[in-house]
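RECORD TYPE: inverse folding
INPUT: structure tokens
STRUCTURE:
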């Protein structure tokens, strides 16, 4: 399944003109990277993959509709999946863009 181009465009709009922003096709989706660190992606599985502080993963899963990403049968703290149904509006998407870009900015540049 291809990623949602409309969602990718909305993410791009919300991030704005960040000089450290790059876009890269990854995992079958389109990832948005800040200083080389993935922040958020329009996922090939639908919805968005959001990079978060691993120490906050459990709290975010408990308080939102996000789920931990599961790769090759293993849960991945620090990587959350947010369903397309929970990203229908920019008001729903914006907090995830902020969380992902905020965490990516906190990491050393690659």
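DESIGNED SEQUENCE:
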């Amino acid at each position: 399944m291809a990623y949602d181009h409309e969602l990718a465009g909305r993410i791009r709009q919300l991030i704005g003109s960040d000089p450290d922003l790059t876009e890269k096709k990854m995992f079958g989706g389109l990832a948005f990277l800040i200083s080389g660190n993935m922040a958020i992606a329009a996922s090939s599985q639908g919805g968005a993959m959001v990079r978060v502080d691993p120490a906050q993963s459990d709290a975010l899963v408990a308080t939102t509709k996000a789920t931990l990403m599961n790769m090759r049968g293993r849960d991945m703290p620090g990587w959350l999946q947010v369903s397309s149904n929970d990203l229908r509006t920019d008001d729903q998407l914006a907090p995830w863009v902020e969380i992902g870009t905020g965490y990516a900015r906190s990491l050393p540049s690659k």
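NOTES: The chain has one domain: 5-106.
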